[in-house]
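FAQ: What does the model actually see?

It sees only this:
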Amino acid sequence: MSFTNNSENLKVALERIGGMCFKAESILGLCIDGFMKHKIDLIERAQEQTAAMNEEGNQLRKLLSNKAAERTINNDLIKCLLATLSSIGLALNGLDSISRHVGFKISEKIIFSDKGLDEIRYLFNTTLDILKTAGDTIANRNEKFMKCVVDKCISLEKLAAHYAEKHEERMVTGLCPPEASPVYVNIIDSILTVAWHIKKAVTRLFGQW
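And it is asked to produce this:
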């Protein structure tokens, strides 16, 4: 993706879009800390930051729409940036869902089995890595990084499916508390939402739909 002198604002917009992935990484970090330490204030901070990021996304959409109206910049480039931004916005919805389900777990004092706890923690950390690599992909406009994000997302999806099967086995054998099951499943679904839309974000940036 190349920029001309009259598209300097688009370079800034691209940097801000990449920065949103790093901010999303920070938000997920707060959710993980809240999850592990049972601290609702960390979840509230995550939700505040998610709201701020949504507002930043609205500002960037307005900026890009205004640039498109100037008719002096390649609209295909703007379309790629808008599509990328849209996917990141949907990933933010997944982060918001994570924070809500973790918050519910904390407020209701729901306990996961040791195995379930380890699985969620591993998926969380894998998603952190995906968000960081996605930020690097966008900031550096590096197609190799993009392919790395895609591979990591595919691996996470497969692992999540495997964990879901193990969770069902624990439900049958009574190792998983019944009240923990829907929270566990909802957190995994929310993690997959984040990964799916981050994968779409980086592939859209390179025009791969």
